[in-house]
Amino acid sequence: MDNGTAKGRHGKESFDHICKVMLIGDSSVGKTCLLVRFKDGAFLACSYISTVGIDFRSKIVNLDGTKVKLQIFDTAGQERFRSLTHSYYRDAHALLLVYDVTCNESFLNVREWLTVVEEHASPDVIVMILGNKADMNGERVVKTEQGERLAKEYGVAFLETSAKTGLNVDLAFMAIAKDIKAKRSLRSADKDFNMGEFIESKKQSSSCC
Ligand SMILES: Nc1nc2c(ncn2[C@@H]2O[C@H](COP(=O)(O)OP(=O)(O)OP(=O)(O)O)[C@@H](O)[C@H]2O)c(=O)[nH]1
């Protein structure tokens, strides 16, 4: 695993830290759309093309003068690609585990995904559960509190997101980048960073947008 201390250069842009982030979860929960929303600020409304295997895109974010390059791996949710994607877990610094608030099965499967994480990821990986499609309130079947309770049970962070409206999408990635930077930093100001408190102070509720 990269210790993130070396300065890197990619094309024209230099960076201070590099972080590998993986998007995991059932097929069609919105992993690719979350990545496109974060990277390009756009939403691909009607084009659902299931990811084949694994894809990745990068974005450099500036955190108080420190440039963190997020290398984001978008994995296929389909069962047939699972063994391929498992091999990428070991190097991941953070995992965004996505379910769809309009699909109860995808929520129930979060426990299985967490078992896979335990088996294949590094013990110090940062995990955040995302309840996506929070804009579809009329079709919602998983309550916000259910997601919060599950995340609390496993001691991981939680946010509801919408790749369509952008709700909490940047926040999810920024919180992870900040947490990784804090874990690598020797500065006491960074060491005091608490991801849960940061999310609570910045998150937007799904009913507001
Ligand atoms: N309303 C709404 N639709 C969404 C949202 N995110 C994704 N979708 C739709 O859900 C479908 C699946 O989105 P993808 O991002 O391709 O899903 P995925 O998880 O990457 O799927 P796999 O590649 O099969 O694992 C698409 O039709 C998207 O337009 C969202 O936040 N709100």
Overall description:
The chain has 209 residues and is an alpha/beta fold. The protein has a single domain (17-204), classed as P-loop containing nucleotide triphosphate hydrolases (Rossmann fold, 3-Layer(aba) Sandwich), CATH 3.40.50. Helices cover 35% and strands 25% of the residues. It has helices at 31-40, 82-89, 104-108, 110-120, 144-154, 169-184, 188-191, 195-202, and strands at 8-10, 13-15, 17-25, 54-63, 66-75, 94-100, 126-132, 157-160. It has a six-stranded mixed sheet, sandwiched between helices. It has a two-stranded antiparallel sheet with strand order 1-2. Helix 5 (144-154) links the parallel strand 7 (126-132) and strand 8 (157-160). Helix 6 packs antiparallel against helix 8 (195-202). The longest helix is centred in the C-terminal third of the chain and has 16 residues, at 169-184. It is globular, with a radius of gyration of 16 Å. It starts with 7 loop residues before the first strand and ends in a 7-residue tail after the last helix. Guanosine-5'-triphosphate (GTP) binds next to helix 1. Guanosine-5'-triphosphate (GTP) is lined by residues 27-33, 45, 48, 50-51, 76-78, 132-133, 135-136, 162-164.
